[in-house]
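Q: Hi! Curious about what S-acyltransferase looks like structurally. Here's the sequence.
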Amino acid sequence: VSATPNPTQQAKRRAGRHRRNTPQLVPFPSPPRRRRHADRAEGGGMNCCRHVNPFRVCAGLRGLGYLMVALVAAIVALSYYAVVVYAWGPKLLGGGAAAAGAAAILAAFHVLLVLIIWCYLMVVFTDPGSVPENWRHDAEESGDPASSTSEEQGSAPRYCSRCQNGKPPRCHHCSVCNRCVLKMDHHCIWVVNCVGARNYKYFLLFLVYTFIETVLDTLVLLPDFIVYFQDESRRSSSPGDIAILFLTFVLNFAFALSLLCFIGMHTSLVLSNTTSVEVFGSKRLLWFFPLYSTEDLHNIPALRGLEFPIRSDAIV
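A: Let's find out. The predicted structure is below.
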């Protein structure tokens, strides 16, 4: 007859079987307290950096642009006074060949000034081109990846995370205007606007006419400028007029040099990238004015800024 185990022994046996059947969990060692604080601080700093947009500082350039507009107006006023009122206007009263030459110079000055102001206002107040809402690339809409060109050709489907919209070829997001601009060239603080698909022609004409005007002002003020430094006996002007003459000559000469380099750069970009018809339109009579014909705006895709003809690499 086997002995019956007492209740205490039965409880110990049940506890032993429970320990053998239950998996033992090994606690994962927690990092030191200092490390946890460091990780928390580092993660918080990275999260803060993700929400910081350094390009918001660029929005201050818009305020600087208004100062540049005032500076342009001041330079135009100085040039007008120095050329028309001080240097060549009084020669109209003398008669003869001098009056005829003065009339020709003043006529050219005023024609160029009208063209400059016209082009400048067109650049300032013309929208450079914005992406239509919910715009998508043709390849995305058709679902055919073979119809999209390579990124080197600038036509691969892109997306702007800031505007939450598609980005056509040559389109870029302007941090100053806080929107995408079609065929964006740059944001010009001198015109308080972006230079893009719809005002690029006006911008180029503004550069060209301003360069011609500054060269003209430099040349017509050069005789008085030389007399000022060579013959003291002929200095009959007031100190204020002399200061305006000196300042106008220096400013126009400096702007002529800088604009020459700028025009050369943009000319090379235009010649290497697009044709003159694509940029300036098919109506040759309108090439020299900040205007487009209705047919050009409707038929030339580059003027709309959403699509561009791509030249084949096989064509030399």
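A: A fun detail: Residues 25-55, 145-155, 312-316 have pLDDT under 50 and may be disordered.
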